[in-house]
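Bug report

Summary: structure tokens for C4-dicarboxylate ABC transporter differ between web form and batch submission.
Environment: batch mode, default settings.
Steps: 1) Submit the sequence below via batch. 2) Compare with the web form result.

Sequence submitted:
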Amino acid sequence: MKLISITTLLTTAALAIASPALSADYTLSINTALTTDDPLYKGLESFRDSVSERTNGAIEVKLFPNSQLGPDEDVLEQARAGAPVAVVVDGGRLAVFQKEFGVLGAPYLASGYDGMRKIVTSPLFEEWVTSLKSASGHQVLSFNWWQGERQLWTNTKVTKPADLAGNRMRTPGAPVWVETIKAMGATPTPMPFAEVYSALQQNVIDSVEAQLPAGQGAKLFEVTKELTKTGHINLITGLVTSAAWFDGLPAELQTALREEALKAGDVASYGTRDALAKIEEDLKAAGVNIAEIDVTPFQEATAGVYETLGYADLREKLQKIAAE
């Protein structure tokens, strides 16, 4: 029997009260840690509107930015319990249910969106989607929500792994993230992204690694002075919901959700790509020093992460798919 936390029960009950069915036959509430200014959020808005249009209002999508429904892990648990919720989440958080997903967050797997998109739309990835559904009760709608490459936000200059010795760096708590940051030389310090700004202010942590749109949205430029472009993790995320809720939909609505999620993921991802140069300009104007460095030392330092987590063989398969 699955154990459900009190937080999940209370949040699920609150959703039921706050989101009664009106004209729509079904309601899906989507949680994201990102702000409304993030390019990915524009993709979510596109998804909301296209689903409404394609289903003639049968499905109403509601958006909750800034983690209004709670941390990603809590929303994933709500989805397991059958709640009509979805969350934009990275593969590392899904790896506790289906190990293969974790490799998507491994260091230097592929560069840019196009290579990652080939991986997450491949037949091999669809096998993982099916396995995840059986293992955890989660349904992937699409996994082509690219948020950019992760960079280092610090208050000291960084050019090599040795510069991060003793540096307490926030990262998500999934093993692939923790092992990557440890291999890069820092001390991984897991915490919710919403707590990062205050943690930096209060010197609870020394730094954070994050993609440019999220860092700008969280105003990290107010609490960090150096941005080092390591590009260590190419952040691809997915829109994940409850398998039980999804299976309760008519077949045509299931198809609509998955197809529109894929289209909206492209809207979000290409929007992110097109926004990066302007974000860099804005960060420089805000006083952030942006450093382009030779990332070879970081690539070499993190190469062993794949072996440590048992992804060495899988890495070769995925890099072949990305290069096709």
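Above is the batch result. After comparison, the two runs are identical; trailing whitespace caused the diff. The two ends are 43 Å apart (CA to CA). The chain has two domains: 6-94+122-146+236-277, 151-233+279-318.
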